[in-house]
Design brief:
Serine Threonine Protein Phosphatase 5, Tetratricopeptide repeat, elongated, mainly alpha, about 190 residues, about 0% strand, two-stranded antiparallel sheet
Length: about 190
């Protein structure tokens, strides 16, 4: 019995330490976003880079790479932003916040095909309860992200996709305007 206690105790201690490290990294991630939101972009960048250099956890890495993507959007360096969002998604292909970041890159650069591709991926993975609040300037919810995709479809002249997506969105001034445009009423 005694020979099982020491290995078991060692495993328990290791699990507690590992969970503590994850909690610290999550705190550091929040700190990075707090710095980004207070416009201390350089400090936010360093925070996310430090997290990346200090962890091997794919979920933490995904979130840190995503954080760098948002840093570079704020810095208007879309190529770097996309690179970091892609790295985030390579660590965690279900990171809908990184997909949303890719959509923002597409919107800012007017790369409608990229916005469409990531918007459709996002639509397939994010639920209607989706909410993004990490970067105040880009805070949003599922309906608003879908309106971005809706605008993209309208720009690309993909009226069937517009009509399909309109059925999922609540009626408001924006969706009503898009509906009238598709029906040739404008």
């Amino acid at each position: 019995m005694r020979r099982f206690i020491l290995p078991l105790l060692s495993i328990i201690v290791l699990m507690v330490v590992m969970n503590g490290c994850v909690a610290v990294k999550k705190y550091e991630l929040k700190n990075g976003y707090d710095r980004l939101n207070s416009e201390d972009v350089e400090s936010a960048r360093k925070t996310f880079e430090n997290i990346i250099s200090e962890t091997e956890d794919p979920l933490i890495l995904s979130q840190a790479y995503e954080g760098l993507g948002w840093v570079y959007i704020v810095m208007n360096d879309l190529n770097r932003a996309e690179s970091y969002f892609n790295e985030s998604l390579s660590q965690n292909s279900s990171n809908t916040d990184a997909m949303y970041g890719m959509m923002i890159c597409g919107w800012i650069s007017k790369d409608w095909r990229k916005l469409e591709e990531w918007g459709e991926t996002f639509r397939g993975k994010a639920g209607k309860s989706y909410s993004f609040t990490k970067v105040q300037k880009y805070s949003t919810n599922w309906d608003e992200v879908m309106k971005l995709l809706l605008a993209c479809y309208a720009i690309l002249g993909k009226n069937e996709k517009v009509v399909d997506l309109l059925e999922e969105l609540p009626a408001d001034d924006f969706t009503s305007s898009i509906r009238r445009a598709v029906n040739g009423e404008l």
